[in-house]
Amino acid sequence: MSENQPRVLILMGSDSDWAEMAAARDALAELGIGSDVRVSSAHRTPQRTQTLVQEARGRGIEVIICGAGAAAHLAGVVAAMTTLPVIGVPLAGGSPLAGIDALLSTAQMPGGVPVATVAIGKAGAKNAGYLAARIMALHDASLAKKLDDFVTGMAAAVEEKDRKLQEKL
Ligand code: RP5
To answer: What pTM was computed for the model?
Structure first.
């Protein structure tokens, strides 16, 4: 597999979603995982969405991350069209309901059509990237090692924060 070959497809319902969804691409990039980022809407461009999803497996895509706000049906529609793992990121965007609408639309899937739903907004997008990496690490020992190092680094950062706080107290 080439270094730049995208292994994750990141779909967003609108370019207005990018401010939140960039965190998914960044988390993957930090682990050396290439992603293909596309704007495609379940409601506005259903045919385009279908084509992107149907071509994904043949292009070497292993996980699809979908971010959408408001009546966020993108992840559910995508999960209906593939058996690749689908991670849904509910977005707050300009929604008057601050992402609660997207959370329910994304998470409340009927049995048989799974969408792994993460938290609303940037933290959810970041975790979507790490969750995709954990899925791929099941058959990728080098990626598993990078994830172990990442977790160790996070723990060290917390201990360093505590050490600095103790110095001030
Ligand atoms: C959703 O509607 C998109 O995912 C976006 O979060 C929201 C608003 O889209 P725009 O009106 O900004 O294009 O489908």
So the answer is: 0.96
